[in-house]
Amino acid sequence: MFQTDHPLKLPFWRETAIIVMTCALFCLSCTVKRSFNSIPPVKLNKVASPVIKQIDRIDVATEFKKIFEARHLAFSYPDLIDSFYKSNNYQPVLVPRFMPEHQLQTLEDYLINANLHGIAPEVFSISRVKDLLGSYSDKKSRVKEREVYRNTMELELLVADVMIKYSIAMQFGLVDPARVYSNYSTPTLRPDSMSIMQVLEVKDIKTYLDSVQPKEPDYIALQKALKAESGVENDTMYRVLVVNLERLRWKNKPAAQKYVVVNIPEFTLNVIDSGKSVLSMKVCVGEPVENKQTPQLASMIYSVQINPVWNIPQSIASNEIINYAKRNRYYFANNDINVYKNGKQVYDPESIDWKTEETGAYSFKQQPGEQNPLGRIKFLFNNESSVYLHDTPVQSPFKQDVRAVSHGCVRVEQPLNLAYALFGKGDKFDQIKKGMANGYPKAKYIGLAVKIPVWINYCTAKVDEKGKVRVFKDIYSLDDALYRKISFPFSQLY
């Protein structure tokens, strides 16, 4: 790109500086912005070699380190960026690579169009990107040599940072949901150092940025709905679409061909097989109060228990069961609840004065039967919150539109159909069906031959089979918390 008639070879840092400044001059030949969808190749005009004065007074590596130290707190991954430039002797890499073909203009176009994803362009420091790129395109500018170098180095570091941020946002989301929600235990893939460093090795910006665009049909449908909105931040529909686009960018969906998914705000369970719903039913979820909300989680259903025993949680025992017993000393006998003290069964609980007794040593188990709130079957999967899917003897809540009525577990409308969807035809399903119909219920575990993933998710907007966007009530007020986080996902901005 740059030749000299001088018989001596220039030092590496000096060559780099000259290349960078030449690239800057090349940019003067074209200052027209290109469209987002199509960026045609540009023929560059020949530019005379610049005259470099006092170049020996500038130590590029030292200046680069100074600017890095001044800016690194604004970077998402400062250690990785530092490692990249250390391996390149603290010389500009991306600006010399991308400037001749006007690829940085392409990057700017993608950042400007981040609003198509419900992301404010300023999240990617678009104003600073424009300012620094503009300094190269201003034919009337007369800046000192050292300022040219400093602008080049600032642009270099800014390009590295925003490319990483944009790449991560498109592939993994702007934020880590586990840091947004305390009641979230779904394994969610986040970028590793290798994938981040690979961003800085990209040779063609447009090809790469096209490759990381989310392409799922549900995402595209929400994007179209967002484009039709006013874009005003205080518009309710706009905010709903923005937060649910972010949720779709998270990599937390089960990879299995077949899985069970519960969408909490929709109060619905679906069994998905090969990308299609093969069973759908109503569910009841936890109440909106903090200690009763159904958690977001992912696990594996490994077994069912027909005619289950309910191990009453200590919180329910303390807040509800004991209060019932205080009013009626025969409450435990009438409801088939066994009482244990320090692990040993108490056979005459009606003799206990629950108004004065210290209850911390007691535990309670309700036996199978019509009064058991778990109904005739529960579906078991490991999780930190001790929740599960289960039947219920009380069917009236399924007639309600808002079904946030449980203590945190998920009550299913059609438990036998769910068991069939998981087990299929065969002896095990026949045992389940017979056991649930037995007039003399007895608890029994029946294991799945192959574990089935279960995903309890929270989406307040989704696309139905007809392609229509449906919106659900934000029963746990999780949208607002997420909207605040994605509006300012990084600690500092340029």
Number of helices: 17
**Rg of Cα set:** 31 Å
User: Unreliable segments (pLDDT under 50, ≥5 consecutive)?
Assistant: 1-56
Structural class: alpha+beta
Largest sheet: 8 strands, mixed, barrel
Q: State the domain count.
A: 3
Molecular structure report:
This protein has 494 residues and is of the alpha+beta class. The chain has 3 domains: 12-211, no CATH class; 256-309 and 372-459, Beta Barrel (L,D-transpeptidase catalytic domain-like), CATH 2.40.440.10; 314-366, no CATH class. 37% of the residues lie in helices and 17% in strands. The protein has 17 helices and 16 strands. It has helices at 12-26, 60-71, 78-87, 94-98, 103-112, 126-137, 145-172, 177-180, 193-199, 205-211, 217-228, 236-249, 314-327, 331-334, 415-423, 427-437, 478-487, and strands at 184-185, 258-263, 268-273, 276-286, 296-306, 310-311, 337-341, 344-346, 362-366, 377-381, 389-390, 404-406, 410-412, 444-457, 461-463, 469-471. Strands 2-3-4-13-11-10-5-14 form an 8-stranded mixed beta barrel. A 4-stranded antiparallel β-sheet has the order 6-9-7-8. A two-stranded antiparallel sheet has the order 15-16. Helix 2 (60-71) packs across helix 7 (145-172) and helix 6 packs antiparallel against helix 7 (145-172). The longest helix has 28 residues, at 145-172.
